[in-house]
Amino acid sequence: MNTQHDAETESLVYDDVVRIMDQPSLSATVHEGNSGFTNQRASLADVARLAEVSPITVSRALRNPARVRPDKRKRIQLAVEQTGYSINPYASALKSGRSNIVLAFASNTMSEQFSLALKACAEVLEKAGFLFLVGQTSYSYERETAAIRSLHAMKPAAVMFTGVIELQANREVLRSLEIPIMETWAFPKDPIDMLVGFSNTEAGQLAAELLSRKGYREVAYIGRRSGRGALRLKGFRTQCQLLGMDLVSEVLVDDITGLSKGRSCLHEILKSAVNPQAVFCANDVLALGCLMEARRLGISVPKDLGIIGFGDSDIAAEIPPGLTTIGVDSARLGNEAGKMLIARLSGEIIDEKTRRLDLIVSERGSI
Amino acid sequence: MNTQHDAETESLVYDDVVRIMDQPSLSATVHEGNSGFTNQRASLADVARLAEVSPITVSRALRNPARVRPDKRKRIQLAVEQTGYSINPYASALKSGRSNIVLAFASNTMSEQFSLALKACAEVLEKAGFLFLVGQTSYSYERETAAIRSLHAMKPAAVMFTGVIELQANREVLRSLEIPIMETWAFPKDPIDMLVGFSNTEAGQLAAELLSRKGYREVAYIGRRSGRGALRLKGFRTQCQLLGMDLVSEVLVDDITGLSKGRSCLHEILKSAVNPQAVFCANDVLALGCLMEARRLGISVPKDLGIIGFGDSDIAAEIPPGLTTIGVDSARLGNEAGKMLIARLSGEIIDEKTRRLDLIVSERGSI
DNA sequence: GCTGTCAATGATAACGTTGTCAAATATTAC
DNA sequence: GTAATATTTGACAACGTTATCATTGACAGC
């Protein structure tokens, strides 16, 4: 490798910058207000002095403009712009016990579905002036517990989870926070507070029905041991029995990230006494791993082995022969959750605190 | 669809809970200290009263135990546990002007590479007691600017970006914050502060060399118009020229998320006067989209068309015929960045504020 | 025993905002 | 015009922590 290269080559980035900075619209956004960059931040008192009102009036003008007379409001607005004032969220949170941060915790930030939902939710909430931040729990109860404990100190405006909280103690901690809590991705009968989800049991049932309709008789399951995976398995198992199919193999795993996991799971399945003709994977990553490994082993999909996934990931539609998958509209889920949170945070009386989304079956070539 | 289903079905989640809660180790973690859930939080003063010291001593014992005599330290520790005290981060941040939050902004949280890096970074920082939170900028200068403005109010302990900051005004805002700034994913000669990155220009050069070595003569490029894409293109273009290859088509796009984009780009390329025999895609998602579409169109990879991607995504190795791709070890990048931040945040004098990672070429069947 | 130095602790005063309540002003009713 | 009410504004104190400076006590050196 004899590539001539040094750090300077990359300075193009900054050549680009100059070009970009020439566009007045953007630089205006940045320079708005306070000309230059004063390190000393303006406080409410500074704004108040300039606008010739008391600090508390400034505070009101910013938080609830209707309660301040138009002329003063104008003066205050002007002063805010001149000083480049922005509220100190720490002081505000300290005094009021509230913050404008909405925290979301994802069990796995690498999941396409969760990312889509969180992105949609972020867009809604940021438009409403909230700061939407995401933390990770990595499917670990310990980390989830730690995250929830940190909430007690943070007291965000609201919290959202890509899942439901299972540990009773954590549920109580969350309830004691007295802030809106949004659970998702399942449909328990007793959510902590708000819920935008769907039935995982039904997803399992649908998978069984699809396979039965296609004439499969011996089937297998791959998925997580706990949480939603367990629910999907439950629905699958029940419906298999009902429809007279044999669930000949259940491969239960803890970690489901990475395609290699799906591949090794397929090997597990092939070890079972009775070889199944189809497998339901509790997520698309596992399903794709199976699909890849099947091809590698010369197993024809769907002739020798049918595969159903869950999640309706981007690639499921694209990869030959097309992965049949059950899923929800994740972006819609995030959007709905965001809108519900905003309604609640702005003090509206919510008639419905839960929302159930329909499952979407995308039937493709893999079964 | 006649699936019998109602919300109750999902209550399995909570049956699970009971089982989980029976494990003493976990419930202990939750119940630690303050027995039950007092809504009224304990303050430093409460702890101080119980330990019979002054509040300031408690503060010191928690932040810098070495400065407090062992006997008092013990008493304080005990009092903290009895009261279930946890520090109020808002009060702390208000007074000290610092916080224990480390913010990261990802240009695209749905990217496997960014997710991997952020996850690795989060692990390191959380172990050191920081709260690692992620926001999104969605490759938009407006949102990036908004995010950076919000930093001014938040004053996190440090900030990290999955990229370099291009707008000069934003660079200055960041510098004025006087907190550690971590840029990544490129290797500019004048980073704002800290940097863990690699050369995108070199990535383009490597791609050209690979193709040249395989005997390709007419090649094409697909990628983003700006930022890192532009750098990869620059390196690719330069090296093509040097090696006597013809860059017959450059397809420049703004949005690179989603496989369908790669598919439509392939069509663009096929429209060009001279059909290229190989294409370098500035990321793996685009490359995979091309690969899928090529197969759909009956174009054989690599016989009729060679494809190189960037990012070394999970699926690149798995999908037949195997996607040749150039990338970095994202998890390592995140880990290094996290460790550098911690060193800096704990006041160590850092000898090296930048770190350059090697590019990894994974040669597979697609060229 | 006296002075100087260092470690350990504490008293006081903020940080910048907002909740509470009171005062001032404007508006309406009679 | 006066009284009653509603609207708008402000004074004050507090949220829980930490920076600063002052104090105390311990210990060494002479």
Summarize the structure in words.
Two copies of one chain form a homodimer. With 367 residues, chain A is α/β, with parallel strands linked by helices. The first copy, chain A, has three domains: 44-87, no CATH class; 98-198 and 331-358, 3-Layer(aba) Sandwich (Rossmann fold), CATH 3.40.50; 200-327, Response regulator (Rossmann fold, 3-Layer(aba) Sandwich), CATH 3.40.50.2300. Chain A is built from 14 helices and twelve strands. In chain A, the strands form two sheets. The first copy, chain A, has a six-stranded parallel β-sheet, with helices on both faces. Chain A has a six-stranded mixed β-sheet with strand order 7-6-8-9-10-12, with helices on both faces. In chain A, strand 6 (218-224), helix 11 (227-242) and strand 7 form a beta-alpha-beta unit. Mean pLDDT of chain A is 85; it is low at 1-39. At the A-B interface, helix 1, helix 2, helix 6, helix 7 and strand 2 of A face helix 1, helix 2, helix 6, helix 7 and strand 2 of B. Chain A binds a DNA duplex (30 and 30 nucleotides) through helix 4 and helix 6.
